[in-house]
Amino acid sequence: MPLSARFTGDSSLELRNAGEDPLALAVLFENRGGHIGYRVLHGLSGMAGIETPALSASLDSLKKDLADGLVSQGLYRKEADAMIQTWHDSWFEEGMRVFYLVPRSLVDRELPLSIQPAPAKIARVFVGREEILTPYMRDRLQTALSTGNTQTLDQFGRFLAPFMQQAKGTAAPSVAGYLAAKSEQAKQEFYSPTCVK
């Protein structure tokens, strides 16, 4: 995937598009305790600096901006709205992430498609997603690991293991069993995904 993101300060990030084609739309999104904010970039080529968003936006305005981006790439409005509704629970959950429209050339190159007879028009719109461990989240994670607070650790969901690698926190002995169980659960979900049952 062409996009990478990293913090360059407590409230500033660097977004880098390593691909050949510009990203028509990239959205930096954060949900912290139910308060959300986002920033929109259009035509991202190369590198761009961006500040973290103020947590004062509405989910409705975000959905509209995302839908507008999907429609600009060829989806009908109802298709765009349905796509957003389908991924609502995971796209807008707690945390920070960047959503971006994957360039059509990359989609066609990596996932070639041939239909016979050829349709009059094909729209292939893929949304990429980059999860980001914020300084705030890293502090919470390190504190939860050191104190054995499994309730807070649960809030990191499927991103607990990769975020732990980034945070480099020291886990209290009392959470060793919890972490082993989470690791086993992640393996089972990977090798037996519920989406194919």
Produce the secondary structure layout.
Layout (H helix, E strand, L loop, with lengths): L2 E5 L4 E6 L5 E10 L2 E10 L1 E6 L7 H14 L4 H10 L1 H4 L3 E8 L1 H7 L15 E7 L2 H13 L2 H5 L5 H8 L8 H16 L6
Antiparallel strand pairs: 1-2, 2-5, 3-4, 3-6, 6-7
Helix pairs in contact: 1-2, 5-7
How would you sum up this structure, described in words?
The protein is α+β, with helices and mostly antiparallel strands and 197 residues long. It folds into 2 domains: 3-132, no CATH class; 135-196, no CATH class. Helix content is 39%, strand content 26%. A hairpin with a 2-residue loop joins strand 3 and strand 4 (35-44). The chain is globular and about 60 Å long. The mean pLDDT is 89.
Describe this structure in a few short sentences.
With 197 residues, the chain is of the alpha+beta class. It folds into two domains: 3-132, no CATH class; 135-196, no CATH class. It is built from eight helices and seven strands.
